[in-house]
Write a structure and sequence with these properties.
SpoU_MeTrfase, 8-stranded mixed β-sheet, Alpha/beta_knot_MTases, Alpha/beta knot, 207 residues, 41% helix, alpha/beta, 7 helices
């Protein structure tokens, strides 16, 4: 029973790569993230944003590396990946250009996403899916909440139906061409930028 219990714990635990982050299982996730925000802003002089980018469904190292770089550049608070082993991949490192050293990375396996999204909802995050649906908001008309969690879909299948039900809103990027889909890194980058423009740059301009 003890071994089975330990195995169950390991399957539901979200682990971090930065030593400064306390593991999820042994402490409050919201408190941990607040520590990350404060530590990051103090040491790096970056914005104190509340944007979490969830890329657990993405399995191409090039897309993950590019997202890591984009998330770090625009001051996202964390990038969530399905497996931390991706950061050792040469293609990931080529695209990230060391961004993983400055951006908190959190491992949440695809099978853990429902629980993770529910946890973030209890912490006040709005769960935003990048997906074309009948009720999607146009990116140009959507106002991002301060505490936003951006869920990106798989390269081929998008966001699965079982996760769509856990989203608060879907946002899609207006398109003019014949091809109706963007690379997931490009889609993520556009939404990360729009969040930054609304929540970070405009706030600085007001001060």
């Amino acid at each position: 029973i003890g071994s089975n219990s330990a195995e169950a714990d390991s399957q539901t635990e979200w682990t971090d790569v930065q030593k400064k982050i306390i593991p999820w299982k042994n402490s409050s996730p919201s408190l941990d993230l607040e520590m990350v925000f404060q530590d990051r802003a103090a040491k790096l002089g970056k914005s104190n944003s509340r944007l979490i980018v969830v890329a657990s469904l993405i399995d191409k190292p090039t897309n993950l590396g590019g997202l890591c770089r984009t998330s770090e550049i625009f001051g996202a608070s964390a990038l969530v990946v399905g497996n931390l082993h991706y950061i050792q991949d040469k293609q990931f490192q080529h695209l990230s250009v060391s961004a993983e050293q400055w951006l908190p990375l959190v491992e949440v396996k695809p099978s853990q996403l429902v629980d993770y999204l529910q946890q973030k909802k209890t912490e006040g995050y709005t769960i935003i899916g990048v997906e074309q649906t009948a009720k999607s908001f146009d990116l140009t008309e959507y106002c991002f909440p301060e505490k936003s969690l951006l869920l990106l879909g798989n390269e081929h299948e998008g966001i699965p139906a079982n996760l769509i039900h856990h989203l608060d809103v879907c946002v899609e990027i207006p398109q003019q061409g014949i091809i109706r889909s963007l690379n997931v890194h490009v889609s993520g980058a556009l939404l990360i930028w729009e969040y930054t423009r609304q929540q970070v740059i405009k706030q600085k301009q007001k001060k």
